[in-house]
Every structure is written in C-alpha cells, then in structure tokens.
Amino acid sequence: MASDNLVVLNALDTARTQWYHVTAVIIAGMGFFTDAYDLFCISTVSKLLGRLYYYDPATKAPGKLPHMANNWVIGVALVGTLSGQLVFGWLGDKLGRKKVYGLTLILMVVCALCSGLSFGYSAKSVIGTLCFFRFWLGFGIGGDYPLSATIMSEYANKSTRGAFIAAVFAMQGVGIIFAGPVSMIISNVFLIMYGGKPFDQDEILSTEPEADYVWRIVSMVGALPALVTYYWRMKMPETGRYTAIIEGNAKQAAINMGKVLDIEIQAEGDKLAQFKAANEYPLLSSEFFQRHGLHLIGTMTTWFLLDIAFYSQNLTQKDIFPVMGLASKAQHISALREMFETSRAMFVIALLGTFPGYWFTVFFIEKIGRFRIQLMGFFMMTVFMAIIGVKYDYLKTKEHKWAFATLYGLTFFFANFGPNSTTFVLPAELFPTRVRSTCHALSAASGKAGAMISAFGIQQYTQDGNVHKIKKAMMLLAVTNMLGFAFTFLVTETKGRSLEEISGEDGRRNETQMKTSKPVSAHQDDGWE
C-alpha cells in the first residue's frame, strides 16, 4: 500500500485558511439554513392551519389540526429528508459531489415556493398540497446533508476542518434567527391591519380570514436565500479528493483546487495508481466492515438517538410554551396573535439557547475535540431533561416559568454545543473518499428515522398539553440521551488528523481495524500494512 499521502491531498491538508473556505461555508450551509427555517416556521404555521381549516363550533375551542394531520404536515418533510439523504448520498459517491449538488438547491427553491400554494379550498386539499410539496422540499434538504458535509470536509485543511464542517451546520442557527423575525414581522403586519378579537370574545372573527395569506408568505420566503446562492454553488469545482482518488486524475484535481485556493500542486501518476488500488473495496464488503464497521454503527446510533430528543424539543415547544406561560392560551387571543406570540417565544429560546450552542461548537471543536463535546452534550441534555421531567409540576407554575425557560433553553444549548453538531461532523471525517458521502447519508438518514419517531410518536404526548404525558415524554427523552452518551464510545476522535490517516486510506490501519484484525507478526507491527 501507499506509504505516504498524495501531494495533492497533503497540499489540501496544510493549505492556510483562505477567504474561499469562508465562502464555501455559506454556499454549502444554505441547505441547512432552509432546513432550520422550515422547521421553525412549520411549528407556528401548523397552529394557524388548525384555526383556519379545522374550527368546529361544537367544541367551543379554537380550531386545531387533528393529530394525524399535524403529524403528517410536520413529519412528511422528515420522510422526504430521509429519502433524499440516501439517494443523493449514493449519487454523490457514484457521480461526484459537484454533479448533483445544484439539483438539491433547485428542489428546495421550487418546493418552498410551491408550499404556499393550494390545489383547492377544502382542508383536505390544502393539507394534501402542503404535504406533497413538503415531502419534496425535505428530499432536497436531505440531499444537502451528505453532499455539503462531504464537500466541506474535502475542501478544508486538517487543522480547521472540524470548525468549518460545524460552521456549515451552524447555518441552521442562522436560519432559525432569520425565521423568527420573518414570522413575527409578517404576522404582526397582518395583525395591525386585520387583527381580530380574542376567541373568547368572538369565536368566528378571532380567526382572521387574511391569516390564510400569512402562512403562505412565511413558507415561500424560505426559498429566497437558497435562490441567491444557486449561482455560486454551480461555480464550485469538484473536490480535489474525489477527482484524485476516485476519478484518478491528480492533474485535474490540482487545476480545480488552484482555481479557488492559493496552493501549488504537482501531478504524481504512479503514486496515484497505487493509492487508488489500495482503496477499491465497496461498502458491502468484509474489508469495509473490518475497517469501519464500528464507526458506522456509532455514527448511525448516536445520530438516531440525538434526533429523537432534538426534534422532540423543536416540534413540541409550540405546545409547551402556553404551559410555561411564554405564550397566551389559544382561547384568549386571535389566530394571528397566537402565531406572533409563539414565534416570539421560539425566537427568544433560539436566540439565547439554540444559536449560541452552534457557534460554541465552531469555536471549541478544534480545542476540545468532537468526542468530548458529544459526550458532554448528551450528558447535560440527560440531566436537564430529567430535571424537567421530575419537577414538571413545580416548574410549570407561573412563579417558576423563567426557571423552566432557562432549563428548556439549556437543553437546546447543549444539544447544539454537543451531539447535534458533532453527529454531523464525525461521519464526514471517519470514512474513506469512495464511500464518504454514502456513509454520511446512512448516518443522517438514521437520524431522520429518529426525528420521525419524534414527529409521529413523542408529539402525541405533548399536543394536548396533558401534564402527565409531557412528564413522561421528558423522562423518555432523558433516557434516549443517556443511550446516546453510551454509543458515543463507538466513535473516535478525529481532531488534527488528515482524512486519509483517519480512514486508513493512506495505508495505515485505523482504530477499528486494530480492534478487529488478527494479531500481526513483529515485522508488520509498525502501523503499516
């Protein structure tokens, strides 16, 4: 096997941090911006849809989406995301990262715009149309997960790689910070112009007819940032690692990277052929399982467990805020006022808890390391969710609403300064170039399976505001976080090492191989094959 790294790969690993790295973060992060924007807005939009299309005078209560409709409006995008991750992750390894990268953005733009349209006036047709386009919006978002992570990991140098991959993911935080004011401003403008009476004063006119425009506008605005970055995404060249290792063209890799990064690379034909031959094994092979099996199990299980908790927090906060006293009860306000107050409460939690967590990871990931941040995050989430679960009756009283909000915000902070960021970073670093995008896709899809459990399962516990059920949900989430802590020990630290050293592509045996391989003779026991 090759005994040392290719010059083209070494040049990428040691290249100084340049302006293009920052540009790549913004271009690659736009899918996550759209993902977070959509996740934020659908929570507020779903409440509005319930009041607009599902009001029943016999109940003497504001309209509410039926459990099944609510689960599908929110969950269908997750089904799309899981599908998109697997399809585009596989295509990214087969056709190249660059060839399919623009398609994900086009899907996001078109489907975000179409999410605001309806083919018909009935509740059934409105919800049906929304679900259809949200599935394909999720499909595009899903494709961005493996492609953006892989592209950023293959562009970055080894000393700042984790920070840059984490920064791509931290665009979720920027998306949330953007979504809050958009949702608040649009609902407030309509509230000033067309504001209705509270529900307990006028059951019919408390749901403003003009509110039907609000959810559509909010949904469609999410397409704009993705549209703006399309041109720049199309200008990105194929990654040097894919061009050199998979296509076997080191010269083209040097030319591509020379266009965007200030580095000089010489071609090296013989070593390239040797390097390529050493890494031909497919995903479904005993060689792959021996080298990377434990790491793949580790990245899939931790992301799965994390997303059960993370999406449960995001999707259920609209139901928990009225209990916490951060938003008024639906009976005492109009539909648009409810949307404004829910958006405001979500924005405050995001600004003080969610957003800082992402950037703490960016700043500390190269100092503390991925492994320790993930362990710390899972542990702290377990502690805070267990406290909320055990002390829920005490915390939900009006006098203690700020203690409740603080604990709730801290779970968001340590999710993002913790496993929500690191489960995204690690699969982009642990696996070889030939299957990197697919392995990241498998890990991310496993996460979305966890998110679907949250959308179709955990939400059932919180939708009615039942105290006993919410307590049970919080305790359940504390247990999943504890399991995430345990499964983290299946992955390894990647800080400060080249991608080829981590994956064993450079001829070294990686950690998993050393654990699973048979004892070697003395003359082989120097770490080389």
Structure notes:
The protein is mainly alpha-helical and 529 residues long. It has a single domain (7-505), classed as Growth Hormone, Chain: A. The protein is 74% helix and 0% strand. The protein is built from 22 helices and no strands. Helix 3 packs antiparallel against helix 19 (436-462), helix 13 crosses helix 16 (401-416) and helix 14 (370-390) packs antiparallel against helix 20. The N and C termini lie close together (7 Å). The model is unreliable at 514-529 (pLDDT under 50).
Secondary-structure blueprint:
Layout: H1 7-14, H2 19-53, H3 67-94, H4 97-114, H5 123-155, H6 161-194, H7 211-221, H8 223-235, H9 240-246, H10 250-260, H11 269-277, H12 286-324, H13 335-368, H14 370-390, H15 392-395, H16 401-416, H17 419-425, H18 427-430, H19 436-462, H20 467-487, H21 499-503, H22 511-516
Helix pairs in contact: 2-5, 2-6, 2-7, 2-8, 2-12, 2-13, 3-4, 3-5, 3-19, 4-5, 4-8, 5-6, 5-19, 6-7, 6-13, 6-17, 9-10, 12-16, 12-17, 12-19, 12-20, 13-14, 13-16, 14-16, 14-17, 14-20
> Could you give me the name of the CATH homologous superfamily?
MFS general substrate transporter like domains
Mean pLDDT: 83
Structural class: mainly alpha
Rg measurement, Å: 24 Å
Distance between the termini: 7 Å
The CATH topology assignment is Growth Hormone, Chain: A
Q: Please write the CATH class name.
A: Mainly Alpha
Gross morphology: globular
Question: Would you identify the CATH architecture?
Answer: Up-down Bundle
Total discrete domains = 1
Task: Outline the biggest β-sheet.
Answer: none
The tally of helices reads 22
* Unreliable stretches: 514-529
* Strand portion: under 5%
